[in-house]
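Continuing the batch. This is chain 6 of the set; chains 1 through 5 are on the previous pages. Same settings as before, nothing changed between runs. Recording input and output for traceability.
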Amino acid sequence: MSPAIRQIGERADVDPRALPEDVLLSTEPVVLRGVVARWPMAQAGRASAQAAVAYLRRFERQGAPPVAAMVGPPEIGGRFFYNADLSGFNFRQEKVPLGVALNTLLKYAQDGNPPTIYIGSTTIDTWLPGFQAENHLAWGGREPLASIWIGNRTRIAAHQDVPDNLACVVAGRRRVTLFPPQQLSNLYIGPLDYTPAGQPISLVDFSAPDYQRFPNFAQALEHAQTAELEPGDAVFIPSMWWHHMEALETFNVLVNYWWRRTPAWMDTPMNALMLAIMTVRDLPPEQRAVWEDVFRHYVFQPGEATAGHIPEDARRVLSPLDETKARSLRARLLQRLNR
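Output for chain 6:
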């Protein structure tokens, strides 16, 4: 990748006991140096892989379900991706106890050509109860979903998440490369409904970009931001920013937190995108243009002209939604979709 990529802005003054609102509400990414450096997990991670595993195993829940591990042969070079024709993937999924996965990672830590192993998006409170009590952040009333990500040297293709994200490195080192949401067309995104791990991904190999096949990726790099994170560092990734994650050591652990700035009853906008593809995208051009105006009127630029002429108590879904109205609307949609 280009050495000219600019660095993500940094702060080294953030108190983990009072995460500042200007960070949590930011629309730009920021690296928080040392924000979780005093966590026992980060201290164990700095000591050694063995110390990190021993610390994690203190919290391992007896009788917990197996974790989902992605396992690829050495030949993939840490890059979880599709096969050559995008009909399948270059790795397999395995269900294994968390302790077995940790021991396997330690076993391969000194191997010069190990298989690639990644335990992704594992809910901390389900598999490691008590971990958060010792490794704590103050969220100012938010209740984010806390997950842990464990593996060896891996490369996770650029993808988006709807929630805001605080990703904390607690063992190993990670390189993160971010792109604003507006770089969608320059990142050459793969299938929406067939993905390696749930989110659509960039098809560009960041370690060896094929500019003949993906010429506009050069433009994406002009807007990229990057940083290398040590144990104790974190990066705030705003909603819908593209992020490419590289784990750089033979043993790496990341703890992340997702939260949304919307009520829990609101569905993901991805559902609306899929429905629009099914119902709007392939209309004749003149009809699609009509629906573009309809969406502008009701969704993207609502105003007095949208429902001001309707009595307030008769506006129904044209009035501000709440949980009750959303539940009723969801039931109506399901009834129509299940016809």
